[in-house]
């Protein structure tokens, strides 16, 4: 009886190998040859799953982006969940900022992928779609958490969402550059004061 | 009479070449060989100025960081300048966020350098020193612009400064990923609302 091969699992394994190699030695370390060797494949067998490095990088980008959203909230229905909207906002934004060692390390893979997206229109488009969805969902969270106060205009939600997404991206870089974690508590304070700003009654 | 060679100028020229190559083709494109060829040097002559790629990258990092501060305000004395402190804050923070094509492109070089700093302790230390000075100066600007209001504690200045620096870093990535500049105006609105937040009277 022929062995049953789970091709999807193999693709996932290959992506994990690529991610690990990038984490250890940057983009240059993740060659088709090194990925094949590390995954225990012949070079030709690897090409059965991914025709070239570009397609592995694209899949790795997708994978790292979805890791930033482990609970899949970007794909969630907009239907109210019953959860308190301020708690929901707090939970989701805390999830986005890198606090654990694993999340901080993932920032390094993101740096590599952003860099390559700068000269690869397809990767850039993948990121733009992710970013656009992330922004949209964040605006929805902010609107719910503010209780639909009239004092907050659509422009303000746009600005608050871009602020929050930018801080999250910035925190990726800052925490990666400061492995002693010296800014983690300041980011926690920032998130609390951000929530306070969004939810406080208009004067 | 022997030709007088301006060695400092040559070092600066080499750094500009490295920056241009990184901008065009990423870190891999900037090899000792390609830098020497592009700068019109023999490989051996290049080594007279920089013993290896690591030292060129370190010098390029320094150069890109000082470009982020073209007016040298990070090295300025803390002596009051006579300028209105709110205007001073506005001018400096607008300068830090990438708005022009040149500034947005510089973000790509930064991505490469951050990535390499993640596995190069010396580069990471260079960045930490820059970041620490940038943060310190920003806290000073915020304190002056808020008019020393009692309502603002030291912790709040720390949080506001980290917010602003993180947004600036995030804007580097976001603007690089969106070459159509669709978020430039939202960043302008953010900066104005940030200043409003810092300078407004306590309720």
Automatic annotation (TrEMBL), chains A, B:
InterPro entries from the UniProt entry: BetI_C (IPR039538), Homeodomain-like_sf (IPR009057), HTH-type_TetR-like_transc_reg (IPR050109), HTH_TetR (IPR001647), Tet_transcr_reg_TetR-rel_C_sf (IPR036271)
Single GO molecular function: transcription cis-regulatory region binding
The protein, known as: TetR/AcrR family transcriptional regulator
Origin superkingdom: Bacteria
PANTHER family linked: HTH-TYPE TRANSCRIPTIONAL REGULATOR BETI, HTH-TYPE TRANSCRIPTIONAL REGULATOR RUTR
Protein's organism: Paradevosia tibetensis
Keywords carried by this UniProt record: DNA-binding, Repressor, Transcription, Transcription regulation
């Amino acid at each position: 009886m022929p062995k049953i091969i789970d091709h999807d699992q193999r693709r996932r394994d290959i992506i994990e190998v690529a991610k690990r190699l990038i984490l250890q030695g940057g983009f240059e370390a993740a060659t088709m040859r090194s990925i094949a060797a590390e995954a225990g494949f012949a070079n030709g067998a690897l090409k059965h799953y991914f025709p070239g490095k570009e397609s592995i990088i694209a899949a790795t980008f997708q994978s790292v982006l979805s890791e930033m959203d482990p609970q899949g909230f970007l794909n969630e229905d907009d239907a109210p969940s019953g959860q308190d909207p301020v708690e929901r906002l707090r939970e989701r934004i805390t999830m986005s900022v890198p606090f654990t060692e694993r999340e901080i390390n993932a920032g390094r893979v993101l740096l590599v992928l952003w860099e390559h997206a700068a000269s690869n229109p397809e990767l850039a488009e993948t990121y733009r779609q992710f970013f656009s969805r992330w922004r949209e969902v964040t605006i929805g969270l902010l609107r719910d958490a503010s209780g639909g106060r009239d004092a907050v205009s659509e422009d303000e939600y746009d600005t608050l969402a871009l602020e929050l997404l930018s801080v999250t991206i910035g925190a990726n870089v800052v925490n990666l550059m400061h492995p002693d974690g010296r800014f983690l508590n300041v980011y926690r304070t920032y998130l609390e004061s951000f929530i306070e700003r969004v939810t406080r009654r208009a004067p």
